[in-house]
Amino acid sequence: MIHWSVTRHFNFQNCDSEKDMKTLLHKWNLSKGPSSSSFDNSPILSHSFMGIVVHKTIEKLLCPHIGSTVEDFYRGCGPNTRNRIISETWNECLGRIVGEIIPSNKPSAVKKYVRNAIQLLASQFRTYTIESVERTINGRDTKNREVIGIIDLILISSDRNHEVIIDWKTTNSIQHLQKSKFQLAVYTLLKRHSAEINDLECYVAYISTTVNRLIPGPNDVFVSHVEETIEKDLDYWTHLLSDGPSSRT
């Protein structure tokens, strides 16, 4: 049975014809599922390079500190460690760029993004524990079909009663922020269905070379809208895979 994810939702929307849709769906139907990370080993377009380097660097810095507080992470993640991970990640990603266009930015720009990300966490969630990084979470829709999300960062309070989901973004365009809002709605649904915790907050963490800020996640009305969208997507995908009617609502 084919599963639903945010990436699949947006990739499907970009299809130009029903033939393209069916080709994509059959490809997904043969795949085993998502990788543990959104960015592992995949080709990188030049315009996405900086965001991926920043995201992957933050992930690498956080992973060794899972189970520690944000304060301990802040204290243990000095300039030498940050610079080493930035350099490693930059070179890894540089070898995966598609095409001949080399990014105009330099690793020094990444340092500013990463510094601001760390400062944002330390200023807002110092006492929270780093629960997980790039966590894959599975759930089911009302017809018991699989829904999968990969969450950038999950923090949990010291009393383990309050959880925070963070989605990193390095651009604040309306399009990207709307996509993040959609992602956070999906993660909210998955966490609610898992019944792991009652008190949940979601944020887009927008970072650049000069600013960092938290943007609150979606309200319940939007979360319900996204839940309906998932149902409709999976209904339509199932019809196409079985050569059923091609109507969409």
What can you tell me about this protein's structure?
By secondary structure, the chain is of the alpha/beta class. The chain has one domain (4-241): Lambda Exonuclease, Chain A (Alpha-Beta Complex). 48% of the residues lie in helices and 20% in strands. It is built from eight helices and eight strands, in the order βααβαααβαβββαββα. The strands form two sheets. Strands 1, 4, 5, 6, 7 and 8 form a six-stranded mixed sheet that branches. A two-stranded parallel ribbon has the order 2-3. A hairpin with a 5-residue loop joins strand 4 and strand 5. Helix 7 (174-194) crosses helix 8. It is globular.
Q: What count of helical segments does DSSP give? A: 8
Helical coverage, percent range: 40-55%
Tell me about the biggest sheet? 6 strands, mixed
CATH topology type: Lambda Exonuclease, Chain A
The H-and-E topology, N to C, reads as: EHHEHHHEHEEEHEEH
CATH class: Alpha Beta
Tell the overall outline: globular
Task: Give the strand content.
Answer: 15-25%
